[in-house]
Amino acid sequence: MAIGNIASKCQRKKKVSSDEKLIGEMNLEEKLDVIQEYICDQIDIHDMASELSRTARSNEGSSRRRGRVHFSE
Predict the structure, then answer these.
(1) Does any domain span residue 11?
(2) Taking CA atoms, which of 5, 6, 7, 52 is between 20 and 30 Å from 35?
(3) What is the 3-state secondary structure (H, E, C) of 55-73?
């Protein structure tokens, strides 16, 4: 029952096409596949956001270094 509840929450968070089975019609393996797909999607989103953040920080750092003015006497 707990796996069914988790699978239902995972399925609700994504758009369900009309040809997909409802959670109540799935066997245990299919429910676990729904959960796995949702978790993999979340990991992919996290990885993309991390990469974007890393890229933005490295670009910000390089522009800061170029923008500095050093005075010498």
Answers:
(1) yes
(2) 52
(3) HHHHHHHHHHHHHCCCCCC
CA quadruple 53, 56, 60, 66: dihedral positive or negative? positive
Tens place of pLDDT for every residue, the chain, 73 residues? 999 999 999 988 776 677 788 888 999 999 999 999 999 999 999 999 999 988 888 877 665 555 565 556 5
Q: The tokens of 26 are what?
A: 């799935």
In a domain, 14, yes or no: yes
Report the domain count for the chain.
Answer: 1
Structural domain containing residue 29: 1-34
Q: Determine if the pTM surpasses 0.85.
A: no
| Residue 13: inside a domain | yes
